[in-house]
Amino acid sequence: MSVMIASPGDVTEERNLIRDIIHEWNDINSKATECVLLPVGWETHSAPDLGGRAQEIINKSVEHCDLLVGVFWTRLGTPTGDFESGTVEEIKRHISEGKPAMVYFSTAPVAPQSLDAKQYAALGEFKKWCFDQGLVESYDNISDFSEKFRRHIQMKVRDNPELAKSTSQESVDFLEVYRSARDGAVNERLSEEAKRLLGEAAQDKNGTVMHMRYMSGQAIQTNGINFADSKDRRSIARWEAALEQLQTEELIVARGYKGEIFEMTDKGYEVADKLSQAAN
Questions:
Q1: pTM for the full predicted model
Q2: Phi and psi of 154, rounded to 5°?
Q3: How far apart are CA 33 and CA 27, in angstroms?
Q4: Are 272 and 201 in contact (CB under 8 A)?
Q5: CA triplet 157, 77, 117: central angle to 5 degrees?
Q6: Which residues 6+ apart lie within 8 Å of 33 measured at CB?
Q7: Tally of CB atoms within 10 A around 164
Q8: How confident is the model at residue 263 (pLDDT cuts 50, 70, 90)?
Q9: pLDDT digits (tens, 9 = 90+) for 219-247
């Protein structure tokens, strides 16, 4: 499922955040739903071409998208000749085909002297047009946007199951490529200590890692092996870093409030299996 990101140039942080949240959604949901969300934007899906109007060239690269996410703050964007701006053209062409669009307007404060009066006025007119078309959303700051978009993308896929179908072989193949790339990226980020700790935890009958602290030192244990030499602070620091890395990558999860017991996640077992296969 391709997700077009449409916006003027004053919401770069939001554009990056949309991509991050989409990748997060994939990591959590792609296996269960057999669906991958693919973020699409002119900066990543368009190449230089002197064959026509600039926006028409961009349209060819993004017109196949299933869902659109539009974000605005103080600007509407540069007119294309046919529409008020390139972003507006992308949105209006998209909804004219009966495809769903999620549009957000920032209400974050802005210094008056930094405003382009014509752009701000044009944005106001477009905002009125959007309100006449259906439901739009506003947000106060980047944290508010993050919370809302993360919730809304989950709802959009859930409530539009036809968008999430992966019936074609191409979709199935892409899903496998995505999983391989995701797991491969994790493998490359893991330290040798983290890989070894994960491999042993996967073989532990309970799938747990114990991190115990004593007056004389510490112990990091799994599958009957203690990895931290309590007399060597350098060793302890190295294995503590490995443990933290496994948590960050969501390969293990802490149980209890003291951070003493960690359990393998489904993702952790998958990565451990791939590491084992690669080693053999």
A1: 0.60
A2: -65, -45
A3: 11
A4: yes
A5: 125
A6: 157, 164
A7: 17
A8: very high
A9: 899 999 998 776 778 888 889 999 988 98
- Residue 255 is inside which H or E element, if any? strand 252-255
CA distance 36 to 15: 18
Size of the chain in residues: 280
3-state SS class at 250: coil
User: Could you give the CA distance from residue 106 to residue 110 in angstroms, rounded to a whole number?
Assistant: 10
Q: What residue type is assigned to position 10 of the chain?
A: D
Residues 6+ apart with CB under 8 A from 5: 15, 18, 19, 39, 40, 41, 69, 71
Determine the Cα–Cα distance for residues 142 and 13; give it in Å rounded to an integer. Answer: 8
Q: What is the pLDDT of residues 92-137, one digit of tens each?
A: 999 998 889 999 999 999 998 889 999 999 999 999 999 999 999 9
Structure tokens at 126: 């477009």
* Burial of 167 (C-beta count, 10 Å sphere; 0-12/13-18/19+): exposed
Q: Rounded to an integer, what distance in angstroms lies between the CA atom of residue 187 and that of residue 214?
A: 32
Are the C-beta atoms of 163 and 171 separated by less than 8 Å?
Answer: no
Distance of CA 186 to the CA centre of its chain: 15
